[in-house]
Write a structure and sequence with these properties.
Blueprint: E1 28-34, E2 37-40, H1 44-56, E3 61-66, H2 68-76, H3 78-86, E4 89-92, H4 95-104, H5 114-128, E5 131-136, H6 141-152, E6 157-162, H7 171-183, E7 188-192, H8 197-205, E8 213-216, H9 220-224, H10 233-237, H11 241-248, H12 250-270, E9 274-279
Parallel strand pairs: 3-4, 3-8, 5-6, 5-7, 7-8
Antiparallel strand pairs: 1-2, 1-9
Helix pairs in contact: 1-5, 2-3, 2-12, 3-8, 11-12
Length: 281
C-alpha cells in the first residue's frame, strides 16, 4: 500500500429497496433542477452502474454527493455552481432533494447517500478488481478507512492514502499530489475534503488526474472510521439527520442548518423543482 501521509417538506420517501438499474437513453439523463442545480433522478443501483460503465470504458468523470448545504453554497458561490454543473453525476444525497424530485414527478429518485454509496461501490470494486485511493480526512483518517474497508471487503485493492493539510495548497503541491495520485494507477479516487472544498477540488483537478472516477463523499471518511457518529436510520428516513448532527456539532454546523435550511425551504417554495434531461456522460 502507498501511504503518503436537511429540512422537511412533508412528503414521504418511496421504498428503500432499489429498483433494477435503469436503461438510460444513450444520450440523455433525467435530472431534477433544484434552484438551478441539476440533481440526477436516480437510485443507488443506477449510480453504481454508471460508475462501473465509466471505469469499464476508461472515462474520466467525477461524482458529487449533494445535499441542501451544497445546493445553497451554489447559490452564493459561482465556483460551487460550476463544479456541480460539470459533474458527471450529482447524486441526491439529502432527503429533501429526494422529496423535491418526487414533487417534480420522478418515480425513480431515491436517496444516494455518500456513506452508503461508498460501501456499495467498494463492494463492487472488490469483486471487479478496481483499485481505490483514499484522499482526504484528518491526519490518519484515510489510512484507517482503507484498512477497515479492506477488512470489510476482502480482496479490495488499495492504491494509496493521503490526508492533505487543511490549508490551501500551492500550485507546486497540487502538481505533486496529482503526480502521486496518477502514479498510484487508481481506478477510483475517494475524496473526503468536505463541502464545498471537495467539489471545487474535483472540478479543478479532474483534467490532471488519470483515474476513471473521482468520488466526493465528504463525511463518509469520518463516519466509516467512527470519528463522527451517524444519525440513526429512523431519523435519516424522516429527514431529521440534520437535527442529530446539529446536536452533535452545534458550533460547526449551526449556520448550515439554522440559516441555510430555512432559506432553502423558502426558496424552493417560490422556485419549484422541475424535471428535465441532460446529456448522459
Amino acid at each position: 500500500m502507498i501511504i503518503v501521509g436537511e429540512t422537511h417538506l412533508n412528503m414521504p420517501l418511496s421504498a428503500t429497496a432499489d429498483p433494477e438499474p435503469s436503461t438510460e437513453r444513450a444520450a440523455e439523463r433525467t435530472v431534477v433542477s433544484v434552484l438551478g442545480v441539476d440533481i440526477d433522478a436516480i437510485n443507488q443501483s443506477d449510480a453504481v452502474e454508471r460508475i462501473a460503465r465509466w471505469i469499464e470504458t476508461d472515462q474520466r468523470e467525477y461524482v458529487t454527493c449533494t445535499n441542501v448545504h451544497a445546493v445553497m453554497e451554489a447559490q452564493d458561490d459561482p465556483e460551487v455552481r460550476a463544479a456541480l454543473s460539470d459533474a458527471g453525476m450529482v447524486t441526491p444525497d439529502g432527503v429533501p432533494l429526494v422529496w423535491c424530485g418526487q414533487q417534480a414527478g420522478s418515480d425513480r429518485i431515491q436517496r444516494v447517500y455518500g456513506p452508503d454509496l461508498t460501501l456499495a461501490v467498494l463492494e463492487r470494486a472488490a469483486k471487479e478488481g478496481w483499485s481505490s485511493f483514499f484522499y482526504g480526512g484528518g491526519n490518519g483518517v484515510a489510512e484507517r478507512l482503507a484498512e477497515e474497508m479492506q477488512e470489510r471487503y476482502p480482496g479490495l485493492q488499495v492504491a494509496g492514502t493521503y490526508s492533505p493539510p487543511f490549508r490551501d495548497l500551492t500550485e507546486a503541491e497540487d502538481s505533486e499530489i496529482a503526480a502521486m495520485l496518477n502514479d498510484s494507477k487508481a481506478d477510483i479516487i475517494w475524496v473526503g475534503l468536505g463541502c464545498p472544498k471537495q467539489e471545487k477540488w474535483m472540478r479543478e483537478q479532474r483534467p490532471n488526474l488519470k483515474a476513471s472516477v473521482l468520488l466526493g463523499v465528504g463525511a463518509a471518511f469520518d463516519f466509516h472510521t467512527g470519528k463522527v457518529s451517524q444519525a440513526p436510520s429512523a431519523l435519516q428516513r424522516v429527514g431529521l439527520e440534520w437535527f442529530y448532527r446539529l446536536c452533535a456539532e452545534p458550533r460547526r454546523l449551526w449556520k448550515r442548518y439554522l440559516v441555510l435550511n430555512p432559506r432553502f425551504v423558502k426558496s424552493v417554495l417560490s422556485d419549484r423543482p422541475a424535471l428535465k434531461t441532460r446529456e448522459l456522460i
